[in-house]
Amino acid sequence: MSPLRRRLLFGAPLAVAAAGGAGFYTILRRMQDNKYDPHALPSPLIGKRPPAFTLPGAAGFQGFSNTDLLAPPKPMLVNWFASWCVPCLQEAGMLSVLARTGTTIWGINFEDTGPNLATYLAQNGNPYARIAADASGLTAINWGVYGVPETYVIDKTGIVRWRYAGALTLDVVKSTLDPMLKHYA
Amino acid sequence: MIPELGHFALALAVALAFAQGVIGIFAPGLRDARAMRAAPALALSHFLAISAAFLALIYAGVVSDFTVENVADFSSSQVPLIYRISGTWGNHDGSMVLWCFILSLCGATVAAFGHNLPASLRARVLGVLGLVSGGFLLFTLSVSDPFTRLWPPPLDGAGVNPILQDPGLAFHPPVLYTGYVGFSVAFAFAIAALIEGRIDAAWGRWVRPWALLSWCFLTSGIALGSWWSYYTLGWGGYWFWDPVENAALLPWLTGTALLHCAIVVEKREALKAWTVLLAIATFSLSLSGTFLVRSGILNSVHSFAAAPDQGLFILALLAVTIGGSLLLFAFRAPILAANGVYAPLSRESALVLNNIFLCSIAAVVFTGTLYPPFANLLFGIQLSVGAPFFNQTVLPLTAPLIIAMAVGPLLPWKRAALAPALQRLWLSAGVALVVFLCMTADRHVIAALGLGGGAWVVVSALVDLSERLRLFRVPLRSSLAHLAVLPRAAIGAAMGHIGFGVTVLGIAGMTLATQKVIVLQPGQSTQLGGYTWTLDGLHNAPGPNYEQHIADVTVSEGGHAFLTLHPSRRFFTAQKVVTNDAAIHTNGFQDIYAVFADEPAGGGAELRLNRHPMAPEIWFGGLIMALGGGISLSDRRLRVGAPSRARKTGPAPAQAAAE
After folding, report:
1. CB contact under 8 A, A27 and B323
2. Does a structural domain hold residue A46?
3. I want to staple B146 with a disulfide (CB 3.0 to 4.6 A). Which of A2, A60, B43, B93 is the partner?
4. Residue B556: how many other CB atoms lie within 10 Å
């Protein structure tokens, strides 16, 4: 190795650290100016259509693909859930109320099995008009799903307008979801 | 009054630390012997000052002095004594004091027991430690002062975060911090060696015990944290690839690499610059991990977030510490020449291979953790990198590491032949293959690979050990005699490898876990994992500062009830928080795990039931690894090489003489 290359090699760790430090400095400055919030869970889907997918139905329901979400007659919800997830159970009551008051909800059942899903629906009621099964969890990665439950609002042109990670509560529904559904109606 | 004394002691510690730093670093260059002797004295007094501050803070917590903001915010009069103590380091400001306390303890240990170090090296090592400590003490004193008073004081404190009110978490931070901060000594030795421009076998002998000690603590600290999240958070997971966990894993990976290549420096005087770089990298990663997480840059469930102006202060400190040391490395490391030469197939090469794998894993974890904020900064895109990425990238890198770590210890130094080493591995290969085939019969490929790999590592380390003891070839008594004279480092190394293998077995076994969330009314039962789980009843019971609702769950197999679990929901009245206290029954090879998740409106209990085969092995393996490190620390070579250790362990010199 030539002496120059040796010098450059030994300087490489410093260069990496300096680049990292400069990056962190910029990020911190942007945090101070409220331009960057590391704790926000922004969805890459907001303002776009969901990525291409085709999922089979589950528990006797009809599945769906991204093309089925292109032009719903009114704004609708897509809810990611699983029978093994405790917050999903907590959310089930809220979803039932929404379904009864006329909101269309389609479910995507995440990494679950048919029998467990059937038991879950029998025990907690079924707010879903259609249920698709993402058994492998790959569609969830494409959607950028952070965890279940997660709820997406899709407007009449098929564009994702809102994403909520976690169990929907009455507060969230009243303060954000209802106005959102009215706005895009 | 006491908090003011603590505050003053903290300020005194800043002054002493900087004096230690400046005198320690510059005195050897001036050839001032008296100034060089001042460094250890300053290190000890600096330690005493921080101890006083730390004790004052603990005292304020113990007597529930709510005029101290830190106590009022994070403690309350109803909290049990142990959590009033552990509460002092359960928050950002207090944990800074603990951090500085451990750093000064390391410095004081080097000062007190480093008599056999060359005076200039000792002064420089202490100088580096003093500067690092001074910087962080200044940070504590100026922007995160734990002794801030509050007037008028509240009638009662806000209380400890209920999730943190747990023995596992009382001891997790001190153990983990000792691990992080312990690497500061290896770092200081590396910087001192760069300043002196000389590294030899003796240097390796001093650095290795420190790296080993910190590694033991870091291993235990990570295992404790993971165990805590397993039994407290109540969803049966043990590792979430959260940025804070990654921050602990990164120095563990590079620290493990450091541990292995310090052996090469010590035995063969090769890989010098690389070892120095690893020492710098390990401590740098410890620092960045601890502090970048607090600056709030990384999105994490661990809420320790400080204000952004604190973040800038921290970044400036990191820039000086890490940037300065890497700058020194860039200019001085090229003069560190290797003396030892070795063949492509040798123990040295095996250790290089180990380093390559460990550092590749570290690089992948590092990239995955930092990619989201940097992708946002550079390309303006939002993304989150989670468990799926890490599982898919780390596993393929761990597999060759597992294969190689069984072969490495069998190779001799300088030049080796593969055939004799492989000959001794037929047994482990056989066992691994049988385990693999048994498991693939049930189509669990990942579990089969993991269990096979774990068995391979464990069996080959056992075979290596029994070969050394000539077990089954000579009478048992003479094997035991061999054990007595076998270098403890060899026993420790074998145990370290066995522990890692056991952890791999546990992680692989966990992929076979079965789980279920179900609502049961009293008297109802459900099937899971071959067992019948019955909810017998529900009852209430009081706790020290919470109310609890308890579910009695009986587990039976084939009609025979063998276990009753009592998972509970705890209602902390002060904070209005509910925690789920999991009930876990373990038989050493399997956990039966029940969580009382919720009380549905229709009555009964919502239960989360899990059966976790091999789960205890994950932490058991960590314990074996740490114990192996401890045994290796007691090796005669280290005791003789650094009499500091001999002096500390009392009877050791006599023993060393007898040997």
Report:
1. no
2. no
3. B93
4. 15
Distances (CA, A) of B214 to B363, B494, B582: 21, 19, 31
Does residue A47 form part of some domain?
no
**Same domain as A177, residue A88:** yes
Per-residue pLDDT in tens (0 to 9) along chain A, 185 residues: 577 888 888 899 999 999 988 988 888 888 777 766 665 666 678 888 898 899 999 888 899 999 999 889 999 999 999 887 777 888 888 899 999 988 999 999 988 888 888 888 888 889 999 999 988 878 887 887 877 788 999 999 999 998 888 888 888 888 889 988 888 88
Residue B60 shares a structural domain with residue B20: yes
**Residue B635 to residues B205, B279, B579, B653: CA-CA distances in angstroms?**
11, 22, 45, 12
SS3 content of chain A, % helix, strand, coil (to 5): 45, 20, 40
Name chain A contacts of B318, Cβ cutoff 8 Å: 21
This prediction's pTM: 0.83
Q: In terms of domains, do A96 and A170 share one?
A: yes
Closest CB to B299 among A20, A28, A38: A38
Residues B634, B585 within the same domain: no
Cα dihedral B2, B8, B12, B14 in deg (nearest 10) = 110
Report how far residue B15's alpha carbon sits from residue A5's, in angstroms, rounded to the nearest whole number. 42
Nearest Cα to Cα of residue B272 among B344, B322, B340: B340
Backbone angles phi, psi at B516, to 5 degrees: -160, 140
Give the residues across from B602 on adjacent strands.
none
* Contact by Cβ (8 Å): A109, A131: yes
* Closest residue, chain A, to B609 (C-alpha): A84
How many structural domains is chain B composed of? 3
A28, A90, A123: residue with CB nearest B312:
A28
**Chain B residues within 8 A of A160 when measuring between CB atoms:** none
Determine which of B303, B314, B320, B377 to mutate to test the interface with A (most A C-beta atoms within 10 Å): B377
CB atoms closer than 10 angstroms to residue B157: 25
- pLDDT for A120 equals 87
Q: Are residues B308 and A6, on separate chains, in Cβ contact within 8 Å?
A: no
Pairing between strand A76-81 and A105-110? parallel
Q: How many domains does chain A have?
A: 2
Q: Are residues A92 and A20 in the same domain?
A: no
* Within a domain: B254: no
Flag whether B277 is in a domain: no
Closest CA to B433 of A143, B425, B472: B425
Are A60 and A16 within one domain?
Answer: no
Is A55:A63 a contact under the CB 8 Å cutoff?
yes
Beta bridge partner(s), residue B579: B570
Q: A90 is in which domain, residue-wise?
A: 54-183
Q: To the nearest whole angstrom, how far is the Cα of B324 from the nearest Cα of chain A? A: 9
Same domain, B649 and B577: no
Q: How far is A155 from chain B (nearest CA, A)?
A: 22
B143 shares a domain with B59: yes
Contacts of B63 (CB under 8 A, 6+ apart): none
Domain that holds residue B80: 1-161
Residue B159 region by backbone torsions, left for phi larger than 0, else alpha for psi between -120 and 50, else beta = left
Note whether B609 and B640 are same-domain residues.
Answer: no
Same domain (yes/no): A88, A34: no
Closest-CA residue of B relative to A32 is B308
* DSSP structural state of residue B99: H
- CB atoms A31 and B519 under 8 Å: no
Is residue B497 domain-resident?
yes
Interatomic CA distance for residues B618 and B602, integer angstroms: 38
Distance between B382 CA and the closest CA of chain A, angstroms: 6
Residues B11, B153 share a domain: yes
> In terms of domains, do B528 and B649 share one?
no
The tokens describing B37, both together, are 């002797």
Partnered with residue B568 across adjacent β-strands are B550, B581
